[in-house]
Design brief:
Number of helices: 6
Structural class: alpha/beta
CATH class: Alpha Beta
Shape: globular
Number of strands: 14
Helix content: 10-25%
CATH architecture: 4-Layer Sandwich
Number of domains: 1
Largest sheet: 6 strands, mixed
Length: 295
């Protein structure tokens, strides 16, 4: 007869093994995704965009820093970062070193809440309650130092701002908002029809909140890029993300999808909070988007 403790011990062992895999293996299984996005005018030559998000960098994450630096070998035409770059007071220099050669390419960025505020321990089960009260940390991170350094390289700061870039001979109109997850977005500062003379119109938001996506779609941006969700961070095979940590539905919590008349790409991101260092069925990732002509 099987001892009564056998089943509970088996469950415990399985849970421990899963947690170890999520914390040690999956969390550092750096992955490059590739998608084609049909948004260019008919007959246009392809354009590549490297989308990075949610680095949540700390000084000791040397493996992540090396992997991000090697992304320059993809030779993207444009680099977009959708926020949450740093996770510690001493992370600015390592983050800039990791981005390194990418900062020499045309680029644009926005910030997320963890660019402004130092992360703190939180109960993970709070994410399952939609009506939870948000309480921001009080310890600020050196976001101004990070912003100034990125701007000095030529990257556009699109936090509640409009911008334009000439990339591979194409005129790209851009708009961005600061993080809607902590109510820093000010769409009124960028509102209005996207430049009709541009070859391509791109909008950025850290958190893919439906109210922001609706406004950008209404303004005529063909491609909207976001991060924040970590792809769910913990996913169940054949079910998907357990939570999205924002207003978007689970089906659009990562990768490429349609949002009304726009294409939406939500990056699953490259990091985690230092206080929740696990990912399951959702490896850390960056994305190379190849923009091609519309059908």
């Amino acid at each position: 007869m099987r001892p009564r403790s056998a089943i509970p011990l088996g469950i415990f062992a399985t849970g421990a093994a899963t947690t170890a895999y999520a914390a040690v293996v999956e969390r550092t299984r750096w992955t490059l995704r590739r998608f084609e996005v049909p948004v260019l005018p008919p007959g246009a030559r392809p354009l590549t965009i490297l989308h990075i998000s949610d680095l949540h960098m700390t000084a000791g994450q040397r493996g992540k820093q090396r992997w991000v630096r090697r992304l320059d070998r993809l030779e993207p035409d444009l680099v977009i970062s959708t926020g949450d770059h740093i996770a510690a007071q001493d992370a600015v220099a390592p983050t800039l070193a990791a981005l390194g050669p990418l900062l020499d390419r045309p680029g644009a960025f926005i910030f997320g809440s963890n660019d402004y505020y130092e992360p703190r321990p939180r109960n993970p089960f709070r994410y399952f309650f939609k009506r939870r009260k948000k309480k921001l940390p009080t310890t600020m991170l050196p976001w101004e130092t990070l912003r100034d350094a990125m701007v000095d390289t030529g990257w556009l700061d699109l936090n509640n701002a409009l911008g334009k870039l000439q990339v591979d001979g194409r005129h790209i109109a851009l708009a961005g908002v600061d993080d809607p997850h902590i109510n820093r977005d000010r769409h009124q500062k960028v509102a209005g029809p996207a430049d009709p003379e541009a070859d391509l119109r791109i909008a950025l938001t850290h958190s893919p909140e439906p109210r922001v996506l609706d406004r950008f779609t209404g303004d005529g941006y063909e491609l909207i890029m976001a991060g924040h969700t970590h792809g769910g961070q913990l996913r169940v095979p054949f079910y998907g993300a357990l939570v999205t940590n924002c207003g978007i539905d689970r089906a659009r919590v990562r990768w490429l999808s349609r949002w009304q008349d726009s294409w939406l790409h939500v990056s699953a991101g490259l990091g985690t909070s230092p206080y929740a260092p696990i990912r399951f069925a959702c490896p850390p990732e960056a994305t190379l988007l190849t923009l091609v002509p519309r059908d």
